[in-house]
Specification:
single chain; alpha/beta; Rossmann fold; 2 domains; 7-stranded parallel β-sheet; 12 helices; about 40% helix; Glycosyl transferases group 1
């Protein structure tokens, strides 16, 4: 029997993929059975932020961001803790990267003590479910272009009734304002951080061009096909696929060129990691990466312009071969400071304080 489109994509991304979970919700067959109470849970009075997340062990930057930020908020040891809930697979836990996030396995929320952060692609139907239960929620927009997945009155209501909207990039902020201008005063721009001690240039760079084949597979296939016909024999192309975080960092660290195939992304993470690892990054911005696309490290190619892409790589190879390879420390440091732990920590402190304010207002009613 021929597989459906969703079955093929799900097999490609993994057994518990975002696409698979999204399809389940669209079909309304496996909606989470949320419930709510008016008191603290288990007799413990603890304000909590519950980050909803798909259950997938495929390396996806947005999920890593959710896990890390939940851990950061809890590490603040303030009046608000944070955890991650996989509502369709509560016992799931990501293992492809090291994290300190607490996993929440309960679908029961406290109306006075819990605040739920919903990823933008799940605004429908999770927002309505929570709103009907009287549970306060926010929407975390890591991709401003994913909002259109659920266009309609329910989506409009989801944003209107949200108490807070987080946006991962300047581009995501503008997307939200364009679609939901009435929500502009609820938006808070936040940043992720990249470990610049982990993603760092190797002492001995090799003539490697690396890329991630799971992104825009047709595009990457065409670019690498033509490059394999043209690159000098002392250069090679390496696909980064099926590796944990340390494995990705190791390849980026010894590579000289990274090919970016980002498509409509809020703030693509791999190009940042590649640049911090001393790679010259060539390719698509996915729109969201424009905020950090420094011409000293990054070369922009318009999506689908395959021949220009290939020629840009060949020109960069000729440039690198003509002189000793030297990383641009000034540009790298500037990028590292933009996505530093300190910046993310300040953002999460604000988020924690703001949500505490929202929950205290609920409790005082």
């Amino acid at each position: 029997m021929a597989q459906s489109f969703y079955e093929v994509v799900r097999r490609w991304l993994g057994q518990t993929s975002i696409v698979g979970n999204y399809r389940k919700i669209k079909l309304n067959k496996l909606l989470p059975e949320y419930s709510a109470i008016n008191a603290e849970k288990n007799g413990v009075k603890q304000k909590s932020i519950v980050f909803l997340s798909p259950a997938t062990n495929v390396p996806i930057g947005g999920i890593k961001v959710i896990y890390n930020q939940a851990a950061i908020i809890s590490a603040l040891k303030g009046p608000v803790a944070a955890n991650v809930l996989h509502p369709l697979s509560p016992n799931f836990r990501c293992s492809w990267f090291v994290h300190g996030a607490t996993i929440n396995r309960s679908l029961e929320f406290s109306r006075t003590d819990d605040f739920v952060m919903i990823p933008e692609f799940w605004a429908v139907p999770h927002a309505k479910l929570l709103y009907n239960l009287g549970v306060k929620y926010g929407i975390y927009v890591q991709n401003g272009y994913s909002a259109s997945l659920n266009n309609g009155d329910e989506l409009d209501a989801a944003y209107k009734n949200s108490a807070l909207i987080l946006a991962i990039s300047d581009d995501s902020v503008e997307c939200i304002k364009m679609a939901f201008p009435e929500c502009a005063d609820k938006i808070r721009r936040v940043h992720y951080s990249v470990n610049s001690d982990q993603f760092v240039a190797s002492q001995k760079k090799e003539n490697i061009i690396c890329y991630m084949p799971r992104k825009l597979k047709r595009h990457s296939g065409l670019v690498t096909f033509f490059l394999n016909k043209k690159i000098p024999t002392h250069w090679r192309i390496v696909a980064i696929d099926g590796l944990d975080e340390d494995g990705v960092a190791a390849i980026l660290g010894k590579s000289k060129i990274f090919l970016s195939f980002s498509e409509f992304e809020g703030c693509p993470l791999p190009p940042v990691e590649a640049a911090l690892s001393g790679c010259q990054v060539i390719g698509y911005t996915g729109e969201g990466a424009k905020e950090y696309w420094d011409k000293e490290i990054f070369t922009e190619i318009y999506s689908g312009d395959i021949r220009t892409f290939v020629n840009a790589v060949m020109n960069k190879i000729a440039e690198i071969d003509s002189a000793p390879y030297i990383t641009n420390k000034t540009a790298i440091d500037r990028l590292a400071n933009r996505y530093s732990v300190q910046v993310e920590l300040a953002d999460m402190q604000f988020v924690s304080n703001k949500i505490l304010e929202i929950l205290n207002a609920v409790e005082s009613r």
